[in-house]
Structure formats: structure tokens, C-alpha cells
Design a protein that fits this description.
427 residues; alpha+beta; Acetylcholine Binding Protein, Chain: A; Methane Monooxygenase Hydroxylase, Chain G, domain 1; 8-stranded mixed beta sheet; 4-stranded antiparallel beta sheet; 8 helices; elongated; transmembrane helix; synapse; chloride; signal
Amino acid sequence: RRCSLGLVPDLRSSDTSSLPGFENLTMGYNKYLRPYFGGEPVQIAMSLDIASISSISESDMDYTATIYLRQRWTDPRLVFHGNKSFTLDARLVELLWVPDTYIVESKRSFLHDVTVGNRLIRLFSNGTILYALRITTTVACNMDLSKYPMDTQTCRLQLESWGYDENDVIFTWLRGNNSVHGIEKLRLSQYTVERYYTLVSKSQQETGSYPRLILQFELRRNVLYFILETYVPSTLLVMLSWVSFWITLDSVPARTCIGVTTVLSMTTLMIGSRSSLSKTNCFIKAIDVYLGICFSFIFGALVEYAVAHYSSSQKCAAKGHQEGPANELTKEMEDVNVTNILNSSITRYQHKISFTSIEISRDNVNCNDLTMKTHKKIKRVLRNKLHRIIGYFTIQNPSNVDHYSKLLFPLFFMLVNVFYWAYYLYF
């Protein structure tokens, strides 16, 4: 009996003298058998203190928390006389029966052991045992990042019995939602705890039905950081690309420099926003949608200048072709004198006289030259229709492209922003 709790004789005698009936603690106790073995299940009441949530990882989809887990149950084999409670050495836990509670979906967990193992054993006179542990655990949390960074994540901390089914132990929260403390005082870098609640459930396994306690809490991401770091710079880059609409079409270096610079800056911003979530690229996130919209507007501003400049070049070329023959005709008219007019009139008169003296025979007429082949006619008709279609899309006044772009680009961008923020904030 002395070896069952590892007590030395003189300590045991002193405990016996100070606690009436304390010797009953060693009589017939077996740490391998649960209380009420073979009878009713053991009621285990739990409470939690959340000391900290050190990190929440979107790439690994987990969170790391330090908790104080407290378990209470009654063991009639440890009843002693009196109305006092005693805190025992934590190393005595190896000599007592304790529940086999584990954390569901835990990736890594450890007990703190500085300066000794952070465990507490408190014994009450009615046989109630308080067993407290300080645990740091990394628990998986399935996240939906489709609305990132305007998302709200729901994570769980689940406690379950490993080997004892519901016929042996029953898990309950000590005081319902009030059994959890500290979570409302947490200050996280990117999140705010919206609400939390406790649940009592069962886990149906192949080996039986096991009791489970669930702490569920909702985390809302603070979007202000992302607004300052990503949304505002990307919006300013879009507005910067509109500056080119106020620069004349002839300033090719200035407008090209603005367009290319904004495109490259936007590309760098997109790469930087995805670097922190390198392992979640399969998600199309809200921030990716917004950056894609901004990139499209910036690229559209660059394409707009290309279209306007090309139309202006074509118009100048066409005007040059029309003015060329007119200038030559004017120059010739200036060189014409009276003698040339008389010579040309005499020559024309002689050609008319000689033409009348020519006999027109059937052999001199070539029918192939007077008619066109059918496929040539078809080609000519198709060519005319093609020129007509191209004419519909030909910009008559290239300067109007910039004029309309000054109004349409900001208007469409504001409209897209209204739909974007309304969808991701309220749907």
C-alpha cells in the first residue's frame, strides 16, 4: 500500500496525523482502473483559459495557441475526512488515474516544463480532483480564402477522449460558455475575435462513440492593413495611367513611359501580394480580383494610346496622299504658257484626224480584254465590302479617343468598384 502512491513511511505517518482518514487513500487504489469501474461513467467537467494565439497561418491553414486546460472529476477512492483541499506535487500525477484527453486535429503539441512540468493536482475532501495543464498546440483550421482579405474564418478547438467511450466517461463544460476565459481579451495582429461558443458533441468511430467538447470561435480579418498596403497603391497606379489622356498624341516618349511604368509597377504589386500566400495559389481571392481589375484598366490605357496614335498616323498618311497630286498639278499649271497650250491643241487635233482614218476590223478586237473573269469580279466585290467594314471601325478623329477616354475610364472604374465592394462586403 505504501508503494501504490510512492509515499515514504515518515511522510505518510505525518499526513495521517494531520488528515484524519488519509490512510484510506492508499487502500485498494489502482491507477489503471477508472473511478466507478464497471459502473456508471465518470463525469469530467472542463474549463479553458486561452493565454495567447501566437500565429494564424493561411498558407498552412492552422493556428498556434497556448491554453490552460482544467479538468475536474470525482474519484470516491480518494475521499478523506475534513473540508480542506490540498495541492499535491505535480509528479504524483504519475500515480493517479487521469483522463486520456487529447486535442483533435492537433499537428504539434507540448507541455511546458520550465522550471518543472506545468501541471497542477489539487485534491478535495469529497474526492474531487482538479487537474490543470499548460499546453501549446498547433491545430488545423480549414479556411475559405475566397474573400481574402475581407474574410471571416471559423476555427475550432476540440477535446476528445482517446480510449474511453461514452460508456466510461462523459465530457461536459463546467459552466457552459463561461467555461472559456481569455479569448475576448486577445489582441491579434490581423484578426479580431467576433464571437465564440461551446458545444458538446460525440465522435462516432469504428471502435465506438466518444465524447467531444468543442470551442468554436470566429475570426474577422482587419482589412485596414491591406487597404493601406495594396488597395490604395493599386488605385493610385490606375489613376496615374489616366494622366496620359491629357498628353498630346505627338508626345510618344512621355505617354509610352507612363503606360509601361504603370504596367510594370502593377505587376510587381501583384507578385508581392501573392508572396505571403505562396501555398494557396489555387484560391482566387478577392484581392486577386481587384488587382486583376486594376491591371486591366492600366493595360487598357496603354492600348488606348496605341489605337489613337495608329489612327492619327493613318489619317496623316491619307491626307498626304491627297495633297500630293494637288501640289503637283498646281506646279504644272504655273509652268504652262501660251505656247504649250497651242502645241497641245494642234497635237490633239491631228490625233482626231488620224483616228478617223483607221478601219476597225473584227480581228483587232480582243474579247478577253473587254470582259473580266468571274472570280476577279468576286474578288473585287469582297474587297469593296471589306473596305466598307473597315471603314465602320475607322476612327475619323483620333483626338476624340483621348477625349472620350477621360470620361469613360474613370466612370467604368468607379462602377466596377461599387460592384466589387458591395459583393465582397455584403454577400
